[in-house]
Amino acid sequence: MTTKKMLVTCALPYANGSLHIGHMLEHIQADIWVRYQRMQGNCVYFICADDAHGTAIMLKSQQLNIAPEQMIAQIQQEHQRDCYKFGISYDNYYSTHSEETRELLHDIYSRLNTRGFIKSKFISQLYDSKKNMFLPDRFVKGICPKCKKDDQYGDNCAACGTIYTSLELINPKSVISGTSPIIRKSEHLFFDLPAFTDTLRTWIRSGSIQKEIANKVEEWFKLGLKKWDISRDAPYFGFKIPNSSEKYFYVWMDAPIGYMGTFKNLCKKNKNISFNDFWGSNSKTDLYHFIGKDIIYFHCLFWPAVLSGSQFRKPTNIFVHGHVTLNGSKISKSKGTCINVSTYLSCLNPDYLRYYYATKLSSHANDIDLNLSDFITRVNSDIINKILNLASRNSGFIHQYYNGHLSNTLTHPVIYNMFIESRHYIGKLFQKREFNYAMREIMKLADEANRYIDKHAPWHIAKKIDRRQEALSIYSMGIQLFRVLMIYLKPVLPKLANYSECFLNTRLTWGSLSAPLSNHRINKFKIIFSRIHPDQIASMTNKSQLHEHPTTGNNV
User: What pLDDT, on a 0 to 100 scale, did the predictor assign at position 334?
Assistant: First the structure.
């Protein structure tokens, strides 16, 4: 099998607040896929960083009365810790507020400017005269000029999807002061996105994004691509534009370059990794971005065009997922429908949410509902009753009478062969990110394993001393099947997989599926994963409502 070299990224969390369980969907989806790729022997570098610039960062730090640099450093540590506790296997978690990102940003800007893709012109903008600042699109709200839906941001309508400028909003209001902004002119720099229309059309239809997303992007082509404003006026927290004292790069200019900066930082830590192998225009490696559907425009149009214009490679694929709702409602801190990662972790095992999301995730960008009642039922039924019960019910006899030594004979090889042959189909499902179908197939096998034990009832056979070896063979088969199931579940349940490797006294590898444990001793089974009780969910939601408060918007 040919080993592939891959770089995988998640979209960068914004550095002005805590991560909540909706954010974890993407980190978990990408991590499952990365862990599967590593089990196949592929060389995968997995990175992420905090998106640390913009007006929202500036305002939030002012609200906290600390320097922006101090705030984003604290948030980065918190985000990194949350991801680590959820088993997200990043090789590097960094920040866009880094020297590596600054250097690459200046280099890319210089290349684009030299090749004639940067334009300058005066534009009219909304200005908050009370706060003495120009208003970024996300700090203006008003009525959509197309569908007339109220309470829409100044760049696009969440209701109908229309892209527009804040000047087109009807009855705009400043989110910061609540006042009606005035119009002022300012000189700005623009990236010539329309110059890449043909290049982008070809790339988008090459299979680099899902068909449903390509169809969405096609709508923007029909409307006509527009030059992209990449500058912002002071006051602003970010990187200054060269040869300018009052102009800064727009956060969405440097945020995706943060992928490159984070990888360059990893290359500094590991001298065996070549930056150009992964980002050079002739790169033969694979580059994958996992993102949410709310940032398609930036990643599927702006980002590949910037890379093309500055003569770097374009992504191999961009994998887009949907949003998360909680009990059917939009996740909202102000409405009390939000559970921070730290709150979840204080009440529940992270593997439980990883598994539940896996049962919902597919290769499509459909929204996913975290229904807490269904969450309890699914985890208790599948993980506790089917998987862990299989290990628990079979290990006791083996330790009681045979000191943990498994039988050297495979009593019923037909069922074992059926389990290991499933690796081809389950592997394809993991590869295609059809995790929901993969979990379904794995649980079908778990049902078969438990039915096998029930059918042969080794506890009855073991009552006769002269048939205990026969009972050992059946109980041992239960352990063999548990091992196969845990190999399949290892990308999804890293904590349970680590425990299972200690219990089974062996590593769980995809390559070892065909070889059952022979002449082997297992350790005693200990109950470390327990059923979810409704009281735990109640405690988690109560903590969320008591301690979690709104933070300022998105990256702008």
Answer: 72
Can you give the pLDDT at residue 332?
Answer: 83
pLDDT at 546: 67
Name the strands in the sheet holding 43-50, side by side, starting at the edge strand that comes first in the sequence: 92-95, 43-50, 5-10, 286-292, 317-321
pTM of structure: 0.94
Low-confidence ranges of the chain (pLDDT < 70): 1, 546-556
Residue from 243, 244, 232 nearest 133 by CA? 232
* Distance (Å) of CA 469 to CA 396, 401, 473, 477, 518: 15, 10, 6, 12, 15
Q: Which residues are annotated as a binding site for ATP?
A: 333
Q: How does DSSP assign 161-181, residue by residue?
A: --B--GGGSEEEEETTT-SPP
Stretch (H or E) spanning 435: helix 435-456
Q: CA 289 to CA 292: how far, in whole Å? A: 10
Non-local (6+) Cβ contacts of 93 within 8 A are 47, 48, 49, 76, 79, 80, 83, 262
Q: In the numeric block, which tokens belong to residue 106?
A: 């200046």
Annotated binding site: 144, 147, 157, 160, 333
CA dihedral angle for residue 97, residue 100, residue 106, residue 110, rounded to 10 degrees: -150
Render pLDDT for 207-260 as a digit per residue (tens, 0 to 9): 999 999 999 999 999 999 999 999 999 999 999 999 887 899 999 999 999 999
Cβ neighbour number for residue 474 with a 10 Å cutoff = 22
If you search the block for the tokens 């100044």, which residue do you land on? Answer: 154
- Binding residues for Zn(2+), by number, are 144, 147, 157, 160
